[in-house]
């Protein structure tokens, strides 16, 4: 009898797994959903994908998911997490159900991002040169001069072609109304583009027939576009381009080596470069070679121990003076981080209007500036409903999500804000849009954001897609990989 029951249970389990995969029981739970409208109807861009995927069984979907994860690990696509005190190497979780963006929606987003990057570049150049925006008190002078990312040595600097922010990763979210908003600007050393590229390669293996028949814009030419942009900012024909990494222990080292390999340029660290005869030179087996362009993945403060942090062991002594004289191009230019400050972010709509005389095409999230008395008091009184962020932290660190935090955490952040109000902003807790994810063989919604990558060379070029980051933990709003987040391929349709 027991054996019969066991056999029946096994048959039932096998039957469940051999059933067709279906979105029929998927629930949006009243969040804005990327795949389904409020009426439960599938959005037009997703219709071909749904039709094809629902021809597969749950076992087939699980098998494809597992194959993608094995490929990630075998290719060494990992990142390091240091939050526990010692480095832990992990693969970035991937979900094989893509995020799909229709052409009209993307075109509007693209226009808004081009507008924003154009204005931010003018702002950075102004801050380090004429400072008109500070003299006109559109952005407070003390706000800029107290920013950790404002670098006095950059005053009077003119980078090649007057371009400061060559590579930007702008984080976008959608709230309950479905409108895109900018959550933050990443202009120092934005990471994650290697995951965007590898997610697409995995999708080609996972759903080759769907991808081929859907009309998805390519992203695989990103390394070519990146190299063209880097060559554009050089003053010499056939320039020597390198990628400068802090080294193998950096959390994004895989990305540094991957991009160098894809561009066909050298990956170097501080030991490979030297300043000699007024130029930056690379040690090679045939002697020293002048370097014209450096895509640096080292933060400003560690770039040059002679100019910035004297304790830096990963920088190149004297490189900043060579940069100032126009004998080497650095991407992104040192000092760009002044526009990366989360408090400066609150002024970006004003920055766009000041330089371009246009209204922002993509809005900011409503932001409370703790350095302003009225805003600060509002934050202190309503901290349980808000997300509080440190001005220069990234990766989900230095942040409080009020509704998820304890009273003790609220009190701790109130104290931090009162001690250093300049260092904090706060925003409403926004219910990020959701996309179906493959969870235990069926579709469940998970919150997402979107990081498109923008290259500024001869023109401003928005890569059609970007990295969709996913809060893999049920109910979580934190999408950062260092905090348990994962990624999805992003399909932008023609």
UniProtKB/TrEMBL annotation:
Q: Which residues form the signal peptide?
A: none
**Which parts of the sequence belong to the Circularly permuted ATP-grasp type domain?**
98-471
Which protein is depicted?
A: Circularly permuted type 2 ATP-grasp protein
* Provenance organism: Fibrella rubiginis
**Pfam families with a match to the protein in the record:** CP_ATPgrasp_2
Regions that span the bilayer: none
Classification of source organism: Bacteria, Pseudomonadati, Bacteroidota, Cytophagia, Cytophagales
């Amino acid at each position: 009898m027991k054996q019969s029951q066991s056999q029946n249970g096994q048959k039932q389990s096998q039957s469940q797994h051999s059933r067709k995969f279906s979105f029929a029981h998927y629930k949006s739970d009243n969040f804005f959903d990327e795949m389904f409208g409020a009426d439960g109807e599938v959005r037009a861009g997703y219709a071909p994908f749904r039709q094809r995927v629902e021809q597969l069984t749950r076992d087939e979907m699980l098998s494809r998911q597992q194959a993608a994860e094995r490929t990630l690990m075998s290719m060494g696509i990992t990142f390091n997490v240091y939050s526990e005190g010692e480095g832990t190497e992990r693969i970035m979780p991937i979900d094989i159900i893509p995020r799909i963006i229709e052409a009209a929606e993307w075109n509007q987003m693209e226009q808004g991002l081009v507008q924003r990057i154009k204005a931010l570049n003018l702002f950075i150049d102004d801050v380090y040169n004429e400072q008109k925006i500070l003299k006109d008190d559109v952005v407070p002078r003390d706000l800029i001069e107290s920013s950790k990312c404002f670098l006095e040595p950059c005053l009077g600097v003119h980078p090649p072609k007057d371009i400061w922010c060559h590579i930007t990763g702008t984080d976008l979210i959608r709230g309950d109304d479905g409108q895109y908003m900018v959550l933050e600007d990443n202009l120092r050393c934005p990471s994650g583009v290697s995951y965007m590229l590898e997610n697409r390669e995995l999708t080609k293996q996972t759903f080759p027939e769907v991808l081929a028949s859907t009309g998805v814009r390519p992203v695989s030419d990103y390394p070519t576009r990146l190299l063209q942009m880097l060559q554009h900012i050089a003053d010499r024909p056939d320039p020597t381009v390198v990628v400068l990494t802090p080294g193998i222990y950096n959390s994004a080292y895989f990305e540094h080596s991957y991009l160098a390999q894809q561009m066909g340029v050298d990956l170097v660290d501080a030991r490979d470069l030297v300043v000699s005869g007024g130029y930056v030179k690379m040690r090679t087996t045939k002697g020293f070679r002048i370097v014209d362009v450096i895509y640096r993945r080292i933060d400003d403060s560690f770039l040059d121990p002679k100019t910035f942090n004297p304790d830096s062991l990963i920088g190149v002594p004297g490189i900043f003076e060579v940069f100032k004289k126009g004998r080497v191009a650095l991407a992104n230019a040192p000092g760009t981080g002044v526009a990366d400050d989360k408090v400066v972010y609150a002024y970006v709509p004003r920055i766009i209007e000041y330089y371009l005389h246009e209204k922002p095409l993509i809005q900011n999230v409503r932001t409370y500036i703790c350095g302003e008395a009225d805003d600060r008091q509002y934050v202190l009184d309503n901290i349980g409903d808000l997300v509080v962020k440190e001005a220069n932290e990234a990766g989900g660190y230095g942040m409080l999500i009020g509704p998820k935090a304890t009273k003790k955490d609220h009190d701790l952040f109130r104290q931090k804000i009162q001690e250093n109000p300049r260092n904090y902003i706060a925003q409403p807790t926004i219910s990020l849009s959701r996309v179906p994810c493959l969870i235990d063989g069926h579709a469940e919604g998970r919150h997402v954001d979107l990081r498109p990558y923008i290259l500024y060379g001869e023109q401003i070029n928005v890569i059609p897609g970007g990295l969709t980051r996913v809060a893999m933990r049920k109910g979580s709003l934190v999408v950062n990989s260092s905090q348990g987040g994962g990624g999805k391929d992003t399909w932008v349709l023609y």
